[in-house]
Design brief:
This is Large ribosomal subunit protein uL23. By secondary structure, this protein is an alpha+beta fold. It contains 3 helices and 6 strands; from the N terminus they run H-E-H-E-H-E-E-E-E.
Amino acid sequence: MNQERVFKVLVGPHVSEKATVLADGKSQFVFKVATDATKLEIKKAVESLFNVKVAAVNTVNVLGKSKRTARGVGKRNDWKKAYIALQPGQDIDFASSAE
């Protein structure tokens, strides 16, 4: 996988209460990813960017909500979420990986 695709696969970390509980207890991290990304691409992108070993990748397609506006009914974009399980002893430190 070329370096350009690595940066397009991972959109960013998904910060929520559930994601924080998973990161603390089970060494799992949640990322927003490109809607066309495969599990293998996500695994390679995380391993190359953060220098960790990935044990498993689970993905979820999140459907956009329908919203009412002054001009009628609109819809938010669909997006994809990936749950990354790391092998024992591995950890992602977002503060040091930005260097």
